[in-house]
Fold:
Amino acid sequence: MKNLNNPEETNVDNQIVRIKNKLKIIFNHDLNLPVETCPIKDILSVASDKWSILIILFLGGNEVLRFGELKHLVNGISSKILTERLKRLERDGYLTRKLYAEVPVRVEYKLTKFGVSYLEKLLAISEWAQDEMNIILSSRAEYDNRSQ
Structure:
């Protein structure tokens, strides 16, 4: 039974109600819609994979980066995957690509205003993860100990 005098429980309950209301809006008031009809699935999938997040973070820390600089910073990414992610991010408006008719050709990438807006959200999530890291590490250790 819930303790109605416990403000922490009441706050969590209120938070859950607010979250459910937001989810209903996102899913057009039907939380049981199949995932294929999720209106944000396609949009967020472009900018939420690990490579795209790193690209956006590095572009946020630098005014402009060239392809080779990005490839060096995003350690472990292949040229093919980097090219694909850059095209997808450009197509959705997160970044711009500027081509210079030089020999060799120079291409520079820069976040758009929209990309910077998304970067701010990524930073908020990153800060949350950093603040909650002890909870995550403790949960992992507890789970691993139970699994053995």
Observations:
- Residues 41-132 form a domain with the Arc Repressor Mutant, subunit A fold (CATH 1.10.10.10).
- The chain has two domains: 1-39, 41-132.
